[in-house]
Amino acid sequence: MERTLCIIKPDGVKKNVQGHIIQMLTDAGFDIIGMKMTHLSSAQAKSFYEVHKERPFYNDLISYMTSGNVIAVALKKDNAVADYRKLIGATDPAEAEDGTIRKKFAASKQENSVHGSDSVENGKIEVGFFFAECELY
Ligand code: CMP
Q1: How many A from CA of 134 to the centre of ligand 1?
Q2: Which of 47, 59, 70, 98 has the smallest number of Cβ neighbours within 10 A?
């Protein structure tokens, strides 16, 4: 079974759609193996998104990801990484397919409601960023 990480981002929490998003995750067959609300520090957000540090949107992304509470959800399922990416849809909600989380809830490429791990390896690493192994069930 693969693991992948969902982060319900500040726009999703501020709009209070976290319950809808979690329902979509479980309806799609994902097992929630860990969940926590947190407020990322600038250092944590910079570390999590280090891979994007040369991108022009990096500073805005860090400001946005530290602008409010987030909910980290560790997920488990066969083929979790690819299935979750399909469920959330494209980064830009304008390009996301109907029925996807981002199509339903995201406002823009930046305020796109949820984060998704982009590979099986990063799924493991990103779950580990938010959860100690003893916090996963
Ligand atoms: P996420 O899945 O969290 O991974 C990286 C994030 O960077 C992405 O979702 C978006 O929130 C943000 N992002 C990616 N591309 C752009 C862009 N062109 N402009 C603004 N933000 C972006």
Answers
A1: 30
A2: 98
